[in-house]
């Protein structure tokens, strides 16, 4: 099972519509998880043409910064707990990364948002910084932002994929380019799982 991952699209603030090759890359996925700060749900409508969409409600959908408050939508919740290919996948907008113990930890957020569920995967956004970590046996993935990577000005950012076709989940981040995508150049200690 291949799942498309996206977050922090900021449409139409960033640009009228997402880069066309974001949609092209998601063709063939079984579902798309959007980790919030969608800003306008027309993005979800367009993604829904490709595959079922589940989205986390970010602060950008609730009128912050003078933005239009987005209506209730069955595709959007504060947090989703999804059973995908026998894996428990959590989706939300904000997770404390980096962690600040004792209260602002991934474990505390999992307990608050997903009580009684031992998550295999946790998808989140908010920081606009792509990240893949294994924390307490949970694969934690932030796909970054396709429009405002690292909270910078409009430019090609990142999207991600989650693969649930092996005994353990794995993920990758792809860098958008003018001509499509390329593997993300991981600098430092974080590596795709």
Structural account:
The chain has 193 residues and is mainly beta. The protein has a single domain, classed as Purple Acid Phosphatase, chain A, domain 2 (4-Layer Sandwich). Helix content is 11%, strand content 30%. The chain has helices at 20-26, 42-48, 106-113, and strands at 2-6, 31-34, 53-56, 76-77, 79-84, 87-92, 121-123, 131-135, 138-142, 158-163, 170-177, 180-183. The strands form two sheets. Strands 4-3-2-1-10-11-12 form a seven-stranded mixed beta sheet. Strand 8 and strand 9 form a beta hairpin. The longest helix has 8 residues, at 106-113. The protein is globular.
H/E element order: EHEHEEEEHEEEEEE
Query: Helices and strands: which structural class?
Result: mainly beta
The domain count comes to 1
Strand content: 25-35%
Low-confidence stretches: 188-193
Radius of gyration: 15 Å
> What is the terminal separation in angstroms?
16 Å
The gross shape turns out to be globular
Described by strand count, sense and barrel closure, the largest sheet is:
7 strands, mixed
Which CATH architecture would you pick? 4-Layer Sandwich
Query: CATH class, please?
Result: Alpha Beta
Q: Strand arrangement, largest sheet?
A: 4-3-2-1-10-11-12
Fraction of helical residues: 10-25%
Determine the number of helices (DSSP H or I, runs of at least 4 residues). Answer: 3
